[in-house]
Queue: 2 jobs
Job 1
Amino acid sequence: MTQPAHLELDNLMHPDVLANPYPTYRYLREHDPVHWNPVFRSWFLSRYDDIVAALQHPHLSSVTWKLRESRYPLSADDLAATKQILPYFVSFMQGLDDPEHARQRGLMNKAFSARTVERLRPRVQQLVDELLDRALSARRIELMQDLAFPLPWTIICELLGIPEEGHPIIKASSDALARYIVIVAPVAGQLAQITEALQQAHDYLAHLIAVRRADPQDDLLSAMISAEENGAMLSETEIIVACTMLLLAGHETTTNMIGNGMVALLCHPEQLARLRADPQLITSAVEELLRYDGSVQVLPRVATEDITINGTLIRQGQQVNLGVSAANRDPAQFADPERLDIGRQDGRPLSFGYGMHYCLGAALARLEMQITIGTLLRRTSRITLASDNIQWRPNFVLRGVTVLPLLLE
Ligand code: HEM
């Protein structure tokens, strides 16, 4: 395969790559599976076996965010802002190694276990039905704003116990953190906006923690406040960070995944028809949609020692980006990987990661996707795109569409 002219191997924020990153991934997988990306000054891995090995490598750490400060020159204001933002990534489980990671995860595992999540089924179904009632009478829906966002957002807010009055403040901080992930070099004022949003959410959550401390409720926030497993109590700052990060992790990826899943189905009408004809396929269909166009494309790690991956030397301190969505299209792992097949049983997609950081919310995300897509198909006879012009968000890590207007019959 020669490199197509439009292929951007390094600028993963290029509009062509954002619209369809898979030709780039394919080229890298075939020609340069351990690729040095000079734009992001990091390695990019694209083969399934390399990524599974990397996710278990003792010298590839999740503590990547400390690198951030040195990646580009910062003004004094931006440096101060960065110091305020980084703790969100540095002290949450996803950016920690064991034993700190295991301590935090242990405190939250129960709240997201398959059994606990299954109890949410009626509430998820009720919410999807309510959101769809409105759309069905209008015979159209802007899927992202009207369903894909409010469902996981409401559920994670209810799990944590965030009252409705706090939702806009918390949503603004979540969005700010999602934007921060892909900043290569900040433009003037960009980081200040992020810290402003985080500060407001911080103040709101500190107030809410005081309220819950005085009057605990049956929610995850109260559970975190009273958690004392092996004396592993969380500090107020840790609780605020965990809340903010859980709210981000608990909705952004699922919102995007519902959108990506529906785009994939609408672009493959034969698979959509197959799912309509056999709703039992919803479980395998959701796994396949996660494989085919996942909402988390890249997982960052950092080398804690000089290591060799697939014959390439990675120096201590270098960042290694694991292209899980590239791995999910690796023909060495999946038969005919560019084909969407909602009955597919082979392989083992890396959409929720692998190993000790395997997504805490996987059971919840699966439940929400199955009910949303299943109900959308059950309650309609035909769904069409209202516009062929699909805009992808400017984010190569968290992949999703900005809007998705659909006509419903
Ligand atoms: C379709 C939706 C989702 C996708 C594609 C997704 C994907 C992922 C991936 C790939 C990881 C591994 C990160 C790594 O190894 O660095 C991860 C971790 C995580 N996810 Fe999800 N996620 C989704 C939904 C959720 C939901 C609903 C929650 C709810 C709270 C959640 C919470 C987390 C947390 C807390 C971690 C960190 C786990 C750890 O470090 O041990 N995710 N997710």
Job 2
Amino acid sequence: MQDKELYQHLLGLTAPWTVSEVKLDMQCQEIHVRVEHPRGTKFCCPECQKPLSCYDHGDERQWRHLDSCQFKTILKARVPRVDCPEHGVKSVAVPWAEPHSRFTMLFERFAIEVLQMTQTVTGTMTILRLQWDATWHIVERAVARGKARKEPSLLPRIGIDEKAFSKGQSYVTIVYNLDESTVEAIHEGHDVEAAKACLSQLNEQQIQSVQAIAMDMSSAYVKAAKEVIPLAETKIVHDRFHIMKLANEAVDKVRKWEHRRLLSEGDDRLAGSKFFWLTSLQNHSEKQQARFQSLCNNSLATGRAWAYKELLRDLWAQETEGNAKRFFNDWYRRVIRTNMKPMKKLAKTLKERIDNIVTYCTHGITNGVAEGINSKIMSIKRRVGGYRNIENFKKAIFFYCGGLDLYPR
Ligand SMILES: [Zn+2]
């Protein structure tokens, strides 16, 4: 098989396009493949598909293609132009690349696969021997392509959460589809206006379809949801992981306070015990369990706070909102009678929000999806070494977490 014929096959070129020349540049480790069409070929207007004679050709362009045996492979051609009576002079579409791309579709597909698999832009640059700008350009085009194709679907269960961009200096608000584990909307900021703008990126039908919204206890997000989503007061579910995190923090405050008090009496029983009170019992080793038992039997305030925190978990096992409220009221009465300030503060906070905590019994949702996506975003951010600006950050989130069809075809 001749080299021209070989590349004709490798590129999957069909009439009228044929390979006219294959050149090997040993110095640059590149293979240049020139592609042509016969004289008199008719091409379609890219706007109306009307077949027309070739008007002229643009300057020679080149497209990076998949490597051949580690050699960078470059496709070269002069793209024909047609003079459409309706649309004027236009460059025709070539079958191997999308308009304005510097890569063949096969190369772009491969680059997207590498980006998805490695989850690093810098790693992809090294593997594909590309510059940052060229690699990032592939990400941008893929996201634009995916967004243009995406059909808006109904969103019965959504989550709303914030994500820090650049070391807590600024935030974005993100709306998730909890059923598909995808990011649906992103907006800069995390106040009421930002959350409203983010939710308003959903279309009217999607907004009407929302049955439940998971969120932490941020009052900005509550307010925004109530303004945008009809009957939001029955749909908001404060995330139970977020609440248990607050409960853990309250226990830890009790531990710190008690540890200081005991130390002043020369008692270091609580030294190095932070871990016990924050992790689940099943994560303790046998030795740790023995120490934990003895600490619990010591009638320490920390032990009592821990027990109240663990008891609170049963709130989410109640079958109805009514049962959950009765359970909570009982829990509240016991905690509020103690002298542990951080636990009492927690109890009061939860009491204020209880209507939107017990909604869990009806809707059964958490923001666990958001947490999962957040950690994905964090790992991408670490590996990319931060994004140059917030627009790039948003694009990367959509690229990796948007559930978009990114590939050219
Ligand atoms: Zn036309």
